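Known limitations

Files may contain more than one protein. Parsers should not assume a single record per file. Below, a two-record file is shown to illustrate correct handling: read the sequence, read the token line, then continue until end of file.
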Amino acid sequence: MKKKEFRINFQMPIRGSDIVVPMTAIAELHHSEPYYLLRSIEIIPVKQDKPKGEIFIRELRIKEIKGEKENIWVHCDTGRESELSRSAGLAIEASGKNHTD
């Protein structure tokens, strides 16, 4: 991985159910806007005999925007929040590598 890239692990809840999917991705900050490019978003295998997870999405761009009460993480293309953008964004914050730090 390049120096400015870092791995995040997060839990993505499935809306309307009790299911939570463990996921991992490589995050890279782009300073132009700023936004994060997430690559190789994988579902972490539950069984230990699988060395690598299945690719869920190859690339995704998310950014943090200021809300009235709290900041939210949205997709760059739609400007909307999803469970995936929110979960990944919170993992970026938890990593301590957020651009606002």
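...continuing to the second record:
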Amino acid sequence: MPPPPGYGTTPSVPSYPNSLPPSTVTPSVTPPPGYVDPYASAPQPGAMSSYTPQGVTGYNNTPPVNSGAYATKPAGSNIVNFNNIEAYYRYMAPKNGDFAGANTIGATLTVSLMNPLYLKFGASWGSGPGGGGTVGGATKANYDFASIQAGVGFHTALINDKLTFVAEAGLVYASLKATNTSVGFSDGSIYVRPALRYTPLDWLEVQAGVTVSSADKYDSKTIDLTGYFRVLPMFDVGVGGDFGNVTRAFRTSLRLRW
């Protein structure tokens, strides 16, 4: 059998791109782009260069990123949310001259229902010392103060997501038991609390509210102001005060969101 055509001969292979293409190009061969030596020296000053400037690519340049600590939204839930538990220490100073200030601890639990409703539960307990050995303090009474509350509320954004209106209504029960004095009470009441929650920054919340209740033995009107600072994605530290017609208090709190 005779060999196939071209057997034993060396095929013709174009020598480019290592050399210039042939003067004539057959339809089956496409000439490569012009060859540029990457090691060629830079052009003299004033001359036009075909090289891309160093540090610049043909792609869209990435926009600058603000290097501030809170240039991007922090991870975790929104600082204004309605699924959280908060524990606090509260120093309560009764306006009644028979009592010294009380160290109070407490906690609140907020649980979101179908938007925009939520439930809120809370409890606190505090104890006030007597006046000690001083003559003026001998009239101060030892006392215990406790309260529990349960309520329901709703929330809605105002103007934009930075300002939220909140309204709560529920029941609160409070009692005070004291020694060395006839002052004391045990009473339940209905309360209503409208409030505003403002977030000027992703890591800061300012909350202000007014509580009005049917109580006649303790605070029936209270103004509260609190600032919360995000320190971890789901964890805040709060500092604030309560100013009522019977007591005034200053508190610090730890809040966990989810």
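Parsers that stop after the first record will miss the second one. For reference, the second record is described as follows. Confidence is low (pLDDT under 50) at residues 65-71, 131-139.
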